[in-house]
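Structure tokens please, single chain.
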Amino acid sequence: MFKSLFLSVFFLSLFVSHYAQNKFAIEANAGFLSPFDSQKGLLGSVKVLYKTSDDFNLYVYSGYGFWDKNHVRYYDEGNKLHFESDENEHQLIPFYAGSRYYFNRNKYLDAFIESEIGMNILKFNSFDFTTQIDPENGKAILVKDNNSKKANNEFLVGLGFGIGFNHQLNSAANLTLAIKLNTMGNNSYRSLFSSTTTHFSFLAGFQFMI
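Here you go.
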């Protein structure tokens, strides 16, 4: 996984160094990843932007994110709410292309919106549930079967939307803050915009002009 990320960043760097004509920028971001139905995690990315006009950029990026358990909620026969997990150790490598539009500029901030489409490699462990009797009420409950652990590797289509701003530090560098919504899906049980495949990310980083 780390090899794939390294190769992606390496080839992006070669492309930029060959074609840069004061229209490219490299942006490195890191922050928190917050899936709708899982524990929170961390995310980092490296983005290459190409300036097509004063207010419009195209970009590509890759990165690495991780989080642990998902959340499964269900009610037993006695209408008691239970929380379990049938997936853990999630690892995400995104590959996206998108566009950024600066809709407002002032002395301190350059505000932008962006949209993107791409592919995601998602790795995680999954588990089956087994039925047990709850000693408190004698009702059947579902419990994760740790012996059923299975490694999974999925390729998911992704969409993303974000809003953020740049603050100029000097003529060659900006501070960047952004909030993004990303969703992933495929043609099986993971669908776009479902609670199990959608997450927010809160990112901060630096942008360097080339």
